[in-house]
Specification:
The chain has about 70 residues and is an alpha+beta fold. The chain has helices spanning about 15-25, 40-50, and strands at about 5, 55, 65.
Length: about 70
């Protein structure tokens, strides 16, 4: 079973970016205004890993989540 791992800003974000682009591709041209996925970049994911927690499942990610700390919540 793949183990979750937390990424650092220095990790390669290209696989995570590709996973997210594939997961949300069906929304292109469907939602108005366009999904924020169109603006997401690997550099943006690295910033998220720096300011929040970016977790993936597996070496070649099959799932990911970004946890943003807020006052007494995550």
């Amino acid at each position: 079973m793949p183990q979750p791992r937390r990424l650092s800003p220095d990790d390669d974000m290209a696989p995570v970016h590709a996973l997210l682009r594939a997961a949300f591709a069906y929304m292109e041209g469907v939602v108005d205004p366009p999904s924020s996925m169109a603006r997401l970049t690997p550099a943006g994911l690295a910033r998220a890993a720096e300011t929040a927690e970016l977790w993936v499942l597996g070496e070649a990610p099959s799932a990911c989540m970004i946890l943003t700390p807020r006052a007494e919540t995550l």
